[in-house]
Amino acid sequence: MDEKDFSGAEGHVVTITNREQVSIGGVIHVDSFDDQEIVVDTDLGNLNLKGEDLHIKQLNLDEGLLDVEGVVNSVTYTVRAKGRGAKAKNILERILR
Predict the structure, then answer these.
(1) What kind and span of H or E run contains 88?
(2) Coil, helix or strand for 63?
(3) How confident is the chain (97 residues) per 10-residue block, as mean pLDDT?
(4) What is the pLDDT of residue 87?
């Protein structure tokens, strides 16, 4: 993968090349990862990458950059829960319906 320069970019940037290489700017931290799914907290919410043979090639949290290799099958954004315990509250609300 070529070196990407997001230093001039403001905010969140996602670049996917041939469904095999992904560069993400605006990364706050990686929540979880394995070879089938990578969950990343970004400036604009959680980003879920799903695919096959996914590998984190480079991670630089100081600059907010993440490079991933593998076959990308889907990219999904989810809304970030507000405050601690929000996720637990949502699960409890669903159970009590």
Answers:
(1) helix 86-95
(2) coil
(3) 49 92 95 95 92 97 96 89 52 61
(4) 52
The residue extents of the domains of the chain are: 13-95
For residue 12 the two structure tokens come to: 């969140």
Query: Which phi and psi angles does 84 have, rounded to 5°?
Result: -70, 140
The SS3 call for residue 22 is strand
27-33 and 37-42: which strand pairing? Answer: antiparallel
Estimate to the nearest angstrom the gap between the alpha carbon of 75 and the chain centroid: 9
**30 exposure class (CB count in 10 Å sphere: 0-12, 13-18, 19+):** middle
Distance CA 11, CA 55 (A): 24
Q: Which CATH class is domain 13-95?
A: mainly beta
What is the separation, in whole angstroms, between the first and last Cα of the chain?
48
Q: Please count the other Cβ atoms lying within 10 Å of the Cβ belonging to residue 22.
A: 24
